[in-house]
Amino acid sequence: MRIILAHNHFTVQGGAEFFYLEVGRVLEERGHEVAYFSIAQEGQSTPWQEYFPKGNEFRGKNLVSGILTFPRMVYSFDAKRSMERLIADFKPDLIHVFAIYLHLTPSILDAASKAKIPILMSCNDYKHICPNYKLFHHGKVCEECKGGKYIRAAINKCAHDSRMISVASSLEAYVHEFLNIYRKNVNMYLFASEFMAKKTEEFWGRDSFTWRKLRNPFNPFECTPNYEPGEYVLYFGRIIDEKGVDVLVEAATMTPKIPVVIVGDGPDLHQLEVAVRESGATNIQFLGAQWGEDLNEIVRQCRFVVVPSLWHENFPYVILQSFAHAKPVIGTKRGGIPELVEHGSRGLTYEASSSQELAEQIDRLFSNVELVIEMGRNCRSYVEAEFNDDKFYGSLIEIYEEAVG
């Protein structure tokens, strides 16, 4: 099968790019021909970069520059022409797109539809129903744009807390809805969690679109499990409001005898460090950003991991990383988190924002070493069975074959 994979960035910047490139790797290793389509950036090395269009940037621009750039970020004719050229040269059987907002833009969907190529779209955030991607702003879950009320994004200043970007995001959503550019072109939507699929149905209407579940690829065999419980509780990830690290810090002050290690960087780091100092808590340690084997070792040596997300996180890789190291997870009842954690089997769940309940769950699990070991074994068995290349490919090719008929 000949497949075009399209995503804004070819250079890895996070989990989204990892997903995009891993899909390509799995397909190529099984004999499929794959073409990649992303924006042009420095340092790229791929035979497909001659088709890559120029990207767009809105943040950091003044008002006049932003207004001039805005139309290209809503509908890029340059990206559309580049996609038309790639389709003509490569002659794909289907096109699988990932995050294409702002840079590639959904103009490329029109190019694929015109060529009568089936289109699949993987959604890893909520941009298709929410102008700021998250269904979350200023510390709270938000669905005020439901029913096409995108003006609420501008009123709430929910995109990067910027009036200009929020207005632009609202206008972008209105234009895309007017053009019906996603639902008229995309043959099938792919979601990694049941939660995101059901939430999309709430916004768009049940049976108004076709979707299938496709969990993101992950290789647990790159991680060495450690079934022995460590001596600290761990958080690792971005330190930003929607991640709920402040709730974890508050919970940690209620369990002063249990060491809590926080790994990561972000805009809320300094504020939380100050709050910990002022509280007098001595059981909370910030290690800053850690990567690669240094981070793996920190995960291996913990007792369990906390994922305190306040937003509806779709498919957190940190949970799979924790499971691969045989570490249970305490996570919130938000988004796709409970689907992975499965309360009582691979960890525990609690009501987001409740530092009291989180403290109780931390104390419960930390004090029960036998349960930690049992859950750790469940975690490792789960990712070995459910997240391997053969399992992922089987699901992917079944969906592809359905799409091409």
Question: Would you kindly provide a written description of the structure presented here, covering whatever features stand out?
Answer:
It is built from 15 helices and 14 strands. The chain folds into two domains: about 1-130 and about 180-220 and about 390-405, 3-Layer(aba) Sandwich (Rossmann fold); about 220-385, Glycogen Phosphorylase B (Rossmann fold, 3-Layer(aba) Sandwich). The strands form three sheets. A six-stranded parallel sheet has the order 2-1-3-4-7-8, sandwiched between helices. Strands 11-10-9-12-13-14 form a six-stranded parallel sheet, with helices on both faces. It has a two-stranded antiparallel ribbon with strand order 5-6. The protein has about 400 residues and is of the alpha/beta class. The chain is globular, with a radius of gyration of 22 Å.
**Count of separate DSSP helical elements:** 15
Taken as a percent bin, the fraction of beta residues is 5-15%
Mean pLDDT: 95
In the CATH scheme, the class of the largest domain would be: Alpha Beta
Biggest pleated-sheet summary: 6 strands, parallel
State the helical fraction. 40-55%
Structural class: alpha/beta
CATH architecture assignment name of the largest domain: 3-Layer(aba) Sandwich
Number of domains: 2
Tell me the overall shape: globular
Rounded to the nearest angstrom, the radius of gyration is: 22 Å
Strand order of the largest sheet: 2-1-3-4-7-8
Extended strand count: 14
> Can you say what the CATH homologous superfamily of the largest domain is?
Glycogen Phosphorylase B
Question: Short description, anyone?
Answer:
The chain is built from 15 helices and 14 strands.
